[in-house]
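for the writeup, i need someone to sanity check this before i put it in the appendix. the sequnce is what the collaborator sent (i think, or maybe the updated version? ugh). structure was predicted straight from it, no edits. if anything looks off just tell me and ill rerun, i have time this weekend
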Amino acid sequence: MQDDNLPVSAYFGDMKSLFSLVLVFTAMQLHAQQLPPVFGANTKAHTPQLTRTYLTPQRIVWESGAAHAQHLLAQRNGQADLSNRNMCTLEKTGSGILLDFGREIHGGLQLITGIYKGNKPVKVRIRFGESVSEAMSDIGGEKNATNDHAMRDMIVEVPWLGSLEVGNTGFRFVRIDLVEENASLPLKEVNAIFVYRDLPYKGSFHCSDTLLNKIWLTGAYTVHLNMQDYLWDGIKRDRLVWVGDLHPEVSTISAVFGEQDVVTKSLDLARDITPLPQYMNGIGAYSMWWVLLHRDWYLHTGNIRYLREQSTYLKGLLELLISKIGPDNREKLDGGSMRFLDWPSSGNEPAIHAGLHAMMVMTLNAGAELSKVLGDAATARQCTEAVARLRQHVPDPNRSKQAAALLALSGLAPAEKMNREVIEVDSMRRYSTFFGYYMLQAKAKAGDYPGALRDIRRYWGGMLDLGATTFWEDFNMDWIPNAARIDEPVPADMKDVHGDYGAHCYIGLRHSLCHGWASGPTAWLTEHVLGIKVTAPGCKVIHVTPHLGDLAFAEGTFPTPYGIVSVKHTKLPDGKVRSTVKGPKEVKIIVAK
């Protein structure tokens, strides 16, 4: 991409005609057009479909030595000027201000300065934070703030009477401190630069419980923020394509946005950087999630051309997985593979085996389906025979809700038994934001819709109660007692829910508070409360079976390749549900009686 700070002549030579310059800039601004030939064939690295907009701070959380800070809350024009009116001034070295932009966003910061003595740049320290605690922290220490994946704590120089844009991370709060010696700094504006894909929310959910409505939308927004150059897992940390983490994210995308190229782009990246017999992200389960993702994506999109592009790799991967079944009919994923389900289940080796064994059943069943679609009868048969062998061994979940959920979903164990004896035990202890989705799916398979709705309200609702505007990398119900909200300074006698907790790779403030793998309730509420389930490739057939539980009504929309399906369910006085369903003529909709 071109460097916008260089003169046009650096790219186009000495152009003296104003008309020529106009033509050049017009060509550069045409959306989705090929760059002028002078750029050459190899200069266009990538063109993500991202939008930038500027956001004004919503409130001042803290300030020290900042005069007239309230001026930063006014919407302005983004332009430095000579008037020097209505400025916030950091009056001396060490003065600072903490701003709240109202909700988590992805992007950076714009600072616009006024006139001050010296006519030279001034140094400031900028700290981004997903919580007030993080924005007020120093790198390292007991709270473990980091600059991993994205720079969120830095010292920069701002220009005299000018503008600076800095930062590329996930945040809601920004602290700005004057670190220049013997200086003061007038700030006309401090705006967040919101970088996102400008996509319509084609899917929707609305019911008689406002908390569930908020949870559905928060999950959708969490994934939306992570739809950047690729489909990331986190916008502050884990700005990477983790294939297992994609599964709940793609389920949410299907329910909210419909077909999006960021999905296929991310799946193809994982394939292309992982030659067989390697495992994606170094995790055997994540290569299995890749197969399950393709099964689900084909079911939603019906894109056979794209599926055929995967045929060679898919066949090789399925053969590799089949080779990892031992003579005792147990999974034996090895070869450098990290044996992993999710972080909270780490260390429980019997549970990990049970979960991986169940995933092998699920994956090879999906592989058989896809191989039949691709006309590969031999591979389909190999998958079916391998599943028959795997079903001869039924592992014990060892009290793991993660393993119990997968055993239920794979059909290796009765869903009712796994729900009653494992998932329901100790309420929501040992839940997790990633595998919570599969626990909810297992509860649905067991017919425990009231229990699933209860868990969604208490677990995901618990994050909202603490000030979350996006869902987190992990959450533990034991963190709630005496915890301060993330959008306020932490009192001395309360717990810092962001900085005091966490484990494994997310200790303290390294913990991501916007993690796409936590969006499961959004997809679940669409599938099970609205009752929308795709049963034929390309959404050609959709079954609608609502489960309202204690809700008086639920309504919403669902995107298909042919248009929007709309449903509305109302509970009648006798307890029966009246459903109204509309959809494109290309989609056969079967409503449960």
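The first helix runs from residue 9 to 12. The CA atoms of residues 434 and 526 lie 18 Å apart.
thx in advance!!
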